[in-house]
Amino acid sequence: MIELTGMEIINKLKNSVINLLQAKPKLFDIYPNYEKALEGGLGYDEKKLVEVIVAKALAFKKDLSTNNNLDLSISRTVFALSLLYKKSSLTILDFGGGAGTHYTLAKKLLGDKVSIKWHVVETEMMVKEAKNNNLENEELKFFKDIDSAIDDIDSFDLIYANSSLTYTDDPMKYLNKLLNTNFDLFYITRTPMNEKSKENIVGLQSSKLSTNGQGNIPEGLNIEDEVIKYPFTIISKSVLEKAIKKKTKIKFFIREEVGSYQTKAGNFRMFGYVLKKTN
Fold this sequence. Notes:
This protein has 279 residues and is an alpha/beta fold. The protein has helices at 6-22, 34-39, 47-66, 75-82, 101-110, 124-132, 146-149, 171-179, 237-247, and strands at 29-31, 89-95, 115-121, 140-143, 156-162, 183-194, 201-208, 227-236, 248-255, 261-263, 266-268, 270-277. The chain is globular.
């Protein structure tokens, strides 16, 4: 057995750190449009991904019913609720809200003192899986499109778009649709933007299946972790701001994580907006 001296150990650690720092991150590929990117990925309505997100939502709901353990990933939902702190009843449109974990957290924090109507807009597969697993209740409902989600509510206190616009096939189409609904506040967050031009940049993101949704993959699901790929769009910041200023006033502008999307077309940071409806 070879024994290393203290200095040799330090040098090995030093070299390991240097190699780690010098290692080039894998850059996301760029495509001419969403359809081309989709050909290289699985899409966000892929069956296994949806099953994992719904199973995680069920586990999260169960965990919160018996303990008060939270992590910092919930901070944006807490911020969203803080915008509405004076209200005794809430109507919220959660665009791309997965299997309802934002609602589950809101209910944990607010309890029964605040009545809630929480409408989640998601893919058809996500909606079906959430309903089949009895995640709906009198307050939480799932819809496959914006029109059906707004059908029975005259106006929403808040529209919440947390890391969702960027994963649609046409972010500006959905943004304009949301801007044309009746609402008081609109909170956009975790949305990467192109600050340099009016061009939208479409890429293909790789991630571990286990990183999607809240928490770990439940053991009983019998699904192995794997790398999945799905398209994303870096939205032009100037184009987005032109659209939102037609219908709203920017109440808060938030500079979020830097370099979150590292692509072959450059590195892009995320931004957030709190918007107040004006017309």
